[in-house]
Design brief:
Layout lengths: L5 H31 L4 H29 L2 H21 L3 H29 L4 H26 L6 H17 L4 H9 L1
Length: 191
């Protein structure tokens, strides 16, 4: 089966850990804001709406610009690092404003990460896009299910543990991602 190669496997690992982190974040943020920060549900709704709008605008404006100015894989690696940093800052922050700012930053970078994942996987594929997107969606589902379950189990142990676990997993994914470079993507497309 020539469908999967080492570079695609690396990308699917990144998809799993990214969706683990994103789902863990989404499963945890409401409870954290309400239980730990003691902010009312109206604030949570307003904050999540604001974060969604910011993420949409960031994705709409910056994804095409970054894609034109820099090599896509380098933008992807940088965005992955920014996701890790924002999660770690959420873990160490004891300041409400800093915590919420890092949550906005995480969501903004996550909104750029998703289309870059899809673009890089498409460029790495040699054929059979339908099967590849099936594997992509399966990888996404694995990350979502494990992220949600893990966050649910560990939140009671430590309310910042879901953010820390996500940061560590995305960092491990980043280490796995390092060998992937634009030359491999380009040469993979022509071979």
């Amino acid at each position: 089966l020539k469908l999967l190669n080492k570079n695609l496997i690396i990308m699917f690992i990144i998809v799993i850990v990214f969706y683990f982190a994103a789902t863990s974040y989404n499963s945890t943020i409401n409870y954290y804001i309400e239980d730990v920060l003691k902010l009312p549900p109206t604030f949570i709704g307003g904050f999540l709406a604001f974060v969604g709008i910011v993420g949409f605008i960031i994705n709409l404006i910056f994804t095409p610009i970054l894609g034109k100015l820099f090599k896509e894989i380098n933008v992807f690696k940088t965005i992955t690092l920014c996701i890790i940093v924002s999660l770690f800052l959420m873990v160490i922050s004891n300041n409400v404003i800093l915590f919420l700012s890092c949550a906005v930053i995480f969501t903004s970078f996550a909104s750029i990460h998703i289309p870059l994942q899809q673009s890089i996987i498409t460029k790495l594929s040699q054929e059979n896009y339908g099967s590849l997107m099936g594997i992509f969606n399966s990888s996404k589902a694995i990350g979502q299910v494990t992220g949600s379950l893990t966050a649910g189990f560990i939140f009671d142990i430590g309310n910042k543990l879901p953010f820390l676990t996500s940061a560590i997993l995305v960092f491990i994914g980043f280490i796995v991602l390092l060998p992937l470079n634009s030359n491999l993507i380009s040469s993979n497309k022509t071979s």
